[in-house]
Amino acid sequence: MPDPAISSEFTFELLVCRWAELDWPPDDAARGVDGESADAAPPVIVSRQLGTQKRRWDTIVIECDPEGLAARREFGDRTIDGDLLPLVRHAPAEWAYYRDALPDPGYPWRYVREAIHRGAARGLIEKRKNGRRIEIRRNRPYPDWVRRIVAIENKPDLDASAAAALSDQLEHDVETALADEVWLATGRTGERVEPALLREFPVEAGVLTMDFGDGGDRPRVDADAATVDWLPSTLEPQSDGERFDSAEKARRRRLIAERAYGKGWRSFTETTRPDCRWFDLERMGRGLVPVCGAKRRCQSEAECGSRCGSFEPEPPQWRTKGWPIEGGPGKGVRALLERRRERARDPPSKSS
Ligand code: SF4
Fold it and tell me: Whose CA is nearest to atom 6 of ligand 1?
């Protein structure tokens, strides 16, 4: 049995994502979020490793409007990308010439026509020809489903040099204010995070200490794994900023939310090798993390790829009759995580 100790930032990140799915927001009673109790906490979509061209966040939590999220689900499970979003948002209820209905894209209209064909093929909008003109209409209004966006930077081992490096990133996040809140999540190594390290960070950034220990030597994730060391300030994504005006911020936030919706955080099955015979999933409390039988530990996402020297394909007989999971364990792992991703989009998402 491989050792499931948290030996990589990747594993820590997955556990933070799982915890967020179980128990976001942290310490909500202390924060008095709109007077809501924990039971009334908004449904969340959790994703990892996404952001903008210049800044990629470890963990993203999208707090959703419950009715808006249900309406968003009607558009399907895939991300609605930056070319399709203007279509679904502005397509009219009645048939109209697309150039009359849509805002000027700021780039050639032929790209918009391509997006119309793509959007119609996905069932996001309808299109028809009226003479030489393409007309469009919506199938349903695109909902306002995002309440707040929260960015979390993960650092399991926080020391002075890591704190110094992270402070620049957090300053940047606070300055751009694309997210409503910015947090640092670190592992519990002793007591609370040292005040000297806390002082390294902008006061607007919150600090969470994650405790994935159960008193034994096996890490685990539970809903109460986090302690708030420092509460964050709410940033102002609706205001103009030095880097982006409010309209550009809103556009970027929609893109981030859509990418989080389509990607989730279990998408590591697309970037690692569940088809390797050594790939397995290990239960850690209410979370599952990948482990490597060859390395006998949790592997990192970077090492679990096509260049891994220990990679061995699943034996063909695993993929044929007799294996308890249809298609072999690699395919089974993918299917299992995909099912959990689906379930996580269906609030309430507190089950494991
Ligand atoms: S690809 Fe390498 S790291 Fe990934 S499971 Fe296989 S042996 Fe382990």
Answer: 311
